[in-house]
From TrEMBL, chain A:
Name listed for the protein in its UniProt record: Protein-export membrane protein SecF
Originating organism: Thioclava electrotropha
Function: Part of the Sec protein translocase complex. Interacts with the SecYEG preprotein conducting channel. SecDF uses the proton motive force (PMF) to complete protein translocation after the ATP-dependent function of SecA.
Transmembrane portions of the chain: 21-43, 147-168, 175-196, 202-223, 244-270, 282-306
Keyword Transcription listed: no
Keyword Transmembrane helix included in the entry's annotation: yes
Xref: Gene3D superfamilies: Multidrug efflux transporter AcrB transmembrane domain (1.20.1640.10)
Keyword annotations of the record: Cell membrane, Membrane, Protein transport, Translocation, Transmembrane, Transmembrane helix, Transport
Pfam families according to UniProt: Sec_GG, SecD_SecF_C
Alphabetical list of InterPro entries matching this protein: SecD/SecF_arch_bac, SecD/SecF_bac, SecD/SecF_CS, SecD_SecF_C, SecD_SecF_C_bact, SecF_bac
SUPFAM superfamilies, per the entry: Multidrug efflux transporter AcrB transmembrane domain
Protein export membrane protein SecD/SecF C-terminal domain: residues covered: 121-305
Complex formation: Forms a complex with SecD. Part of the essential Sec protein translocation apparatus which comprises SecA, SecYEG and auxiliary proteins SecDF-YajC and YidC.
Gene giving rise to this polypeptide: secF
From TrEMBL, chain B:
Sequence ranges assigned to domain SecDF P1 head subdomain in this UniProt record: 259-371
UniProt keyword annotations, A-Z: Cell membrane, Membrane, Protein transport, Translocation, Transmembrane, Transmembrane helix, Transport
Subcellular location: Cell membrane
Name this protein carries in UniProt: Protein translocase subunit SecD
Domain Protein translocase subunit SecDF P1: 186-243
Domain Protein export membrane protein SecD/SecF C-terminal: 373-542
Transmembrane segments: 390-410, 493-513, 519-542
Subunit structure: Forms a complex with SecF. Part of the essential Sec protein translocation apparatus which comprises SecA, SecYEG and auxiliary proteins SecDF-YajC and YidC.
Record Gene3D superfamilies: 3.30.1360.200, 3.30.70.3400, Multidrug efflux transporter AcrB transmembrane domain
Entry-linked HAMAP family: SecD_B (MF_01463_B)
InterPro entries recorded: SecD, SecD/SecF_arch_bac, SecD_1st, SecD_SecF_C, SecD_SecF_C_bact, SecDF_P1_head
Membrane topology qualifier: Multi-pass membrane protein
SUPFAM superfamilies given in the database record: Multidrug efflux transporter AcrB transmembrane domain (SSF82866)
Organism of this sequence: Thioclava electrotropha
Length: 328, 556
């Protein structure tokens, strides 16, 4: 017998509904908490969505960066809301100090004017004469307004397209379950961004859509097996068929999440700071997406109940069975 | 399922081979790029320098030489999104109508009474007539000057919308004419921007129209968006006007056919000019940087024949008077006419630096923009940052690939090796397709490829897990049967799972802009190639291996 790495034993028989009150309740709590976080703390919107300018500067110096000096150098320019942060990355040289400066959109101009940028650079030279601007990005209020709508539309369109497809391929209960899982994933990911105040920009929307694609991929694999087993075990209660299906696909779920996370974590660590937020969103989304395909999607399907050959539903297929509540 | 017909085997191998061959140039990126640049230069009919000839010889002509375009975030460069203020053109059009209407209406002065132009919004011509009861008559006369629109979409519509209000005629461009005008304005603007950027000699700029009134400009290798902005953001409308007087009050009342403009280099000095120019920049045939008699930078120009004659006559009649050279509503100089300037050439002085003179000459040669532009968005990425990003992306991709391969082989043994080979082919196919369609690889695109590595093995995992199950379910199952069943049963899951992912990727591509689209392209291609490699390539490997080894029992 050759050696095989097995993260999941050959035959598992977990009862995924055993703690359904806890797990499903946890999901509901996470979604609600995320909504509250977004409403209370708000999102740290990047310039893509609110207009403004980001300037990335580099200086070769061994001594630590004094953000205060940067701030006081730029203050006389009277540019309104200015946010200065230092960027850290394992790829940087020891004497490479990178700072990003975010400036709000200036009144009466769309993109930053050449002389504003020249003034900023000149002021910064007083902090360190070797400072150079390595990248700038400037977006006017007009475009950022359009981008917000584009972002919202694209997420809604993706959800709608998936809903219709699953409906066509499976039954409507499945598509409700799948979409509930998707909404869960997106909300919880956005919630994390609100909690840690990580910059939320256009690339995060791309990450969200990728999470949608990934999460639905996971969910569909479980559903596909469920569909097969429903035909195979006509008499088995729906709950048990679901458990069996998740158990049968568990090793695949873990394997795929494993390889995807391996790839993403190498990007997260080594891919540079430019795409770090984007990769972070995807990494987090893969974890949440895997969780939701096991614990959220099918619970909803069970909750609605499936019409199996127009038979009368077994009372044990009700969600939050009495015995569960008693034992948990 | 283990038996793949010969023609299918050959077809799969051919696709894989083509993929590898077309992906190969990307491994020798710089060499191939040098070769392509040299070939492009030769095609333009330029004679090649020895270096270029060496570069051309550095990559054989018979091999494919399509390479992936590196996005600005990987190569460094500048990107600008400009909005053309198309409405500005209406004003000039409408202003030019006034003399014509005045003439037509004045011919009927007996019935209409006095005729005056009133101040109105830009792009609107308001004419007041003395006898309010004759307004219908005036409208009739005005309508005789209204021509049909000369565009395909505006058939049957008039160019002007003429309405009345009391004793006033209100004349503006009709909607159909506005649309046709906008289209012409955009075409012209694109052309002028292209000429200016080409003249500045950067490599392969991308200049495309976006939506109704926007232009997206990408210039790889440009050191800053600001420089490009100055180059293309200048309208460069040059006119030569008669000077009526000077003033220190910018709000001084001037006649309706006069305008007051500031001096470019003297603060507080304003010129009152005749608003009808003697000649304009459109009449120039050439402009180049030069020096004036004192050795200061200047721009030498030459007029076409008719403008040369006009200018010659004007100077002859106005010796001793100043005339103004106006650039974009600023008077750059107002020399006094010393003598009759015949021959239609001259120089423009105005305290230029050498660079300013060079730029102005370039702008005048390329022509003026029909309307000014507003920049809505700009991005500049320094080449060093781009190089760092590529290095980081390569490193992350390499490490990710190694981790995935180790994980797959540890989990599935020989089959894991097959899946890893398929993964390598998969990446090659992604690069081949990107190169051939001329797609652009961006940093998010690299992320898309790395993500594909993670998910590409998914289809294989689905199949392998199924095979394992079949082996468990059927006591003493024949290995061949298990493999066949595994492929068969995993198919529906593979298809459903990938169609949904594909849908989201398509939406990303269609609605996405910039970084999102860059990611969507590689992600989309990655989905297609990974399904192909999982369903066909690994299966081919398995079937070849099975035919050779005939394993008695399968350990997976």
């Amino acid at each position: 017998m050759a050696f095989r790495l097995k993260l999941v034993p050959e035959k598992t028989n977990f009862d995924f509904f055993k703690h359904q009150v806890a797990t499903f309740g946890f999901s509901v709590f996470m979604v609600l908490a995320s909504i509250v976080l977004v409403l209370v703390m708000g999102l740290n919107l990047g310039i893509d969505f609110r207009g403004g300018t980001t300037i990335r500067t580099e200086a070769d110096q061994t001594e630590p960066v004094d953000i205060g000096a940067y701030r006081s150098a730029i203050a006389p320019l009277d540019l309104g809301d200015v946010l200065i942060t230092q960027v850290y990355d394992p790829n940087f040289r020891a004497d490479q100090k990178v700072v990003t400066i975010r400036i709000q959109a200036q009144d009466g101009q769309e993109a930053i004017s050449p002389d504003t940028q020249a003034k900023v650079l000149e002021s910064l030279k007083s902090v360190n004469k070797d400072i150079k601007i390595v990248a700038t990005e400037s977006i006017g209020p007009k475009v950022s307004g359009e981008l917000i709508w584009t972002a919202i539309w694209s997420v809604l369109a993706a959800v709608a397209a998936i809903l219709v497809y699953i409906w066509l391929r499976f039954e409507w209960q499945f598509s409700v379950g799948a979409v509930a899982a998707l909404i869960h994933d997106v909300t919880v990911t956005v919630g994390i961004f609100a909690l840690f105040q990580i910059k939320f920009d256009l690339s995060i929307i791309a990450a969200l859509l990728t999470i949608l694609g990934y999460s639905i991929n996971d969910t569909v694999v479980v559903f596909d097996r469920l569909r097969e087993n429903l035909v195979k075990y006509k008499k088995m209660p729906l709950r048990d068929v679901m458990n069996l299906s998740v158990n049968e696909t568990l090793s695949r779920t873990v394997m795929t999440s494993g390889t995807t996370l391996l790839a993403l974590i190498s990007l997260l660590v080594l891919g540079g700071d430019v795409i770090r937020n984007f990769v972070f969103a995807m990494t987090w989304g893969v974890i949440v997406g895997t969780y939701s395909s096991v614990y959220v999607a099918k619970n909803i399907v069970l909750f609605i109940g499936l019409d199996r050959n127009k038979e009368k539903k077994d009372p044990s297929e009700k969600f939050f069975d009495k015995t569960d509540v008693a034992t948990d | 399922m283990l038996h793949i017909s010969l023609w299918k085997r050959v077809l799969i191998l051919i696709i894989v081979l083509i993929g590898v061959v077309f992906a190969a140039p990307n491994i020798f990126y710089n060499r191939v790029e040098g070769h392509n640049d040299a070939v492009a230069a030769a095609a333009k009919g330029e004679s090649l320098t020895p270096e270029q000839q060496a570069a051309q010889a550095g990559w054989p002509d018979w091999l494919p030489s399509d390479i992936v375009n590196l996005g600005l975030d990987l190569r460094g460069g500048a990107q600008l999104l400009a909005e053309v203020n198309v409405g500005e053109v209406y004003k000039a059009r409408v202003d030019a109508l006034w003399p014509e209407f005045r003439k037509a209406l004045a011919a009927e002065r007996g019935t209409l009474g006095s005729i005056r132009r009133l101040n109105a919004d830009p792009g609107v011509l308001r004419i007041q007539i003395g006898n309010a009861d004759q307004i219908a008559e005036a409208q009739k006369i005005a309508e005789t000057l209204n021509n049909p629109v000369s565009s395909l979409t505006g058939v049957g519509q008039k160019t002007l919308a003429i309405t009345t209000e009391g004793n006033q005629l209100i004349i503006q461009l009709s909607d159909a004419e506005k649309a046709a005008t906008d289209d012409r304005t955009m075409q012209q603007s694109l052309e002028i921007v292209r000429r200016r950027i080409d003249a500045a000699g950067t490599r392969e700029p991308t200049i495309v129209r976006e939506g109704a009134d926007r232009i997206l400009i990408q210039v790889p290798g440009a050191s800053s968006a600001q420089e490009i902005k100055q180059l293309i953001g200048t309208t460069a409308k040059l006119t030569f006007n008669s000077v009526i007087g000077t003033s220190s009050n910018p709000n001084e009342a001037v006649g309706s056919d006069q305008e007051i403009l500031p001096s470019a280099d003297q603060k507080g000095l304003y010129y009152i000019l005749d608003s009808l120019p003697v000649v304009t920049g459109e009449d120039l045939t050439d402009a180049r940087p030069d020096t004036d008699q004192n050795g200061y930078p200047a721009v030498a120009f030459r007029f076409n024949a008719s403008a040369a004659r006009t200018f010659g006559d004007y100077t002859q009649n106005n010796i001793g008077k100043p005339f103004a050279i106006v650039l974009d509503n600023k008077v750059i100089s107002a020399p006094t006419i010393q003598s009759h300037i015949a021959g239609g050439s001259g120089i423009i002085t105005g305290r230029f630096t050498v660079k300013e003179a060079t730029d102005l000459a370039l702008l005048l040669r390329a022509g003026a923009l029909p309307a000014s532009m507003t920049f809505l968005e700009e991005r500049t990425i320094g080449p060093e940052l781009g190089a760092d990003s590529i290095a980081a992306g390569k490193m992350a991709a390499a490490v990710g690939a190694v981790l995935v391969v180790v994980f797959m082989i540890a989990s599935y043994g020989t089959f894991g090796v097959f899946a890893s080979l398929a993964l390598a082919i998969n990446i090659a196919l992604i690069f081949a397709i990107l190169s051939v369609i001329g797609g652009t690889l961006t940093l998010p695109g690299i992320a898309g490829i790395v993500l594909t590595m993670g998910t590409a093995v998914d289809a294989n995992v689905l199949v392998f897990e199924r095979i394992r199950e079949e082996l468990r379910n059927q006591q003493k199952a024949k290995a061949a049967r298990a493999i066949e069943l595994g492929y068969e049963r995993a198919m529906s899951a593979i298809v459903d799972a990938n169609v949904t992912t594909f849908l989201t990727a398509v939406i990303l591509f269609v609605l996405g802009a910039g970084p999102v689209r860059g990611f969507a392209v590689t992600f989309l291609i990655g989905i297609i190639t990974s399904v192909f490699t999982a369903i066909w390539v690994t299966r081919l490997f398995v079937s070849i291996w099975f035919a050779r080894r005939r394993p008695r029992e399968l350990v997976l």
